[in-house]
Amino acid sequence: MDLHIGRSLSTAEIASLLTEARTRTFLLVGTLSDAELRRLHDPLMSPIVWDLGHIAHFEEVWLRENIQNGDTGSEGLSGIYDPFENSRSKRAELPLLSFPECRAYLSTVRRAVLDALPELPAAGGTPLLADSFVFRMVLQHEYQHNETILQTLQLKHDDAYQPHRRVVAPAPDPDAPGIERMVRFPGGRVILGTDDRSIAYDNERPAHGVDVASFWIDAHPVTNAEYAAFMEADGYADRINWSDAGWAWKKEAGLEAPKYWERTTGEWTERFMDRVEALHPARPVCHVCYHEADAYARWAGTRLPTEVEWETAAAWKAGTDEPQVYPWGDGPPTASHANLDALLFETTPVGCYPEGRSPLGCWDMLGNVWEWTSTDFHPYPGYETFPYPEYSEVFFGDEYKVLRGGSWATRFGAVRNTFRNWDYPIRRQIFSGFRCAKNG
Ligand SMILES: [Fe+2]
Questions:
Q1: How far is the CA of 112 from the centre of ligand 1 (A)?
Q2: 117-135 pLDDT, tens per residue?
Q3: Could you give the C-alpha distances from 363 to 8, 225, 318, 367, in angstroms and in order?
Q4: Among residues 289, 288, 287, 267, which one has the least CA distance to residue 279?
Q5: How confident is the model at residue 346 (pLDDT cuts 50, 70, 90)?
Q6: CA of 141 to the centre of ligand 1 (A)
Q7: How many A from CA of 33 to the centre of ligand 1?
Q8: What is the C-alpha to C-alpha distance for residues 268 and 264, in angstroms, rounded to an integer?
Q9: Does the predicted TM-score (pTM) go above 0.90?
């Protein structure tokens, strides 16, 4: 799937991308009963029918209202599907549309959008329409809610979610070059962020130069085997590994292992949706919070990378000032670059994607697991809100840590080297792991 970043999309490309996104959304939820779609599976998440109604509402607000006027009969739904009016834990109590009603709302909005496409001014016209930004924004929104829905499905307490279709992971390439433990950035000026206006969110802009001291960074995310060694060394119990906030949270939440790890007969297992598997030593550890990642890094004599270091490891290429859009270059992601696109339904052992390595020599920078960084979520110098403050601006501050790189549950079009995600440092329902860094 190619989103043709940096240029306007034709109406045929827009229609095809919108249709593909919707097909995927229904593929993910198609095996669920109405009751499963309506239930609050966890207070951290919305009922899945809320996500579906919200996808339609977002598309209606940003596309229908920007490209044409027309009545889709949805007056009154803003109060239900505006995420800032209703916290996730309260959404199950709202008069939500049923699944059939959601489907009808989604298709009514979509029909209005597709009918209006041929009338679009060719050159854009407004900042939202220029370079087809608003279409990629709506597409990314649906992709991002696909990942949110997958978090909900992984949390599901009752019958485990059974995917309708899953693809098979590539086997690690036996001829692939060996993976070094850490690789070194020699220090220098790098460009962080982007000036792209065709897909990048406001928080990724503007591109700006940063002087970065030399550092070492893990060539691959920390694996289950490495994390298990930390646990066996009493890493959770040893106060010295934990920050004050991390220690307090570890005790309050009773953290003893990554979420979804279980030890029933002496051996640890890891659950991915409906599959419970023996812990694969070479898979990246997944579903750890920032505090666990930070504790591991301290135990290992390292630290978490800053987001500047992370982006440097993904995008910097010696001999050029132009950062790469993806670790492998500027070409769009494919199934041979990274464990992305949400159809594997699990992480893959590090070493499966030699084509996806960054010039510095880092594997799995995109896909597999989101990676915690040590950086709080703040705007870049020169940041300007576009097109609405509720995407980034209202979240800036010290409360959130930045995560980078996407996970197996992230669709191709929803991640790139400059993409910034953020969450509370205690969160573990996200498909989150980490890699370590150190000075030098
Ligand atoms: Fe949303």
A1: 20
A2: 888 766 567 889 999 999 9
A3: 31, 17, 17, 10
A4: 267
A5: very high
A6: 6
A7: 23
A8: 7
A9: yes
